[in-house]
Amino acid sequence: MSSRPITLIAVLFALVPGALLVAQRSGTPGQIRPRPAEGRQPEFPPPSIIEYKPRSTLVTPVHLVPRAKFPAVDFHGHPPLLTSPEAINQVVAAMDSLNLRVMVSANNNMGDRLKQQLAAVAASRYKDRFVFFTGLNLRDLGPGSGARIAAQLEADIAAGAAGVGEISKGFGLFTRKPDGSRLKLDDPELDTVWETAARLKIPVFIHVGDPSEFFEPIDFHNERWLELALYPDRRYQDRSKFPSFEELMAERNRLFARHPNVKWVLAHLGWHANDLARLGRMFDSLPNLYSEVGAILYDLGRQPRTAREFMIKYQNRLLFGKDSFQPDEYPYYWRVFETFDEYFDYYRDYHAFWKLYGLGLPDSVLKKLYYGNALQLTAGIPRTGFPK
Ligand SMILES: [Zn+2]
Question: What is the pTM of this model?
Answer without folding.
Answer: 0.91
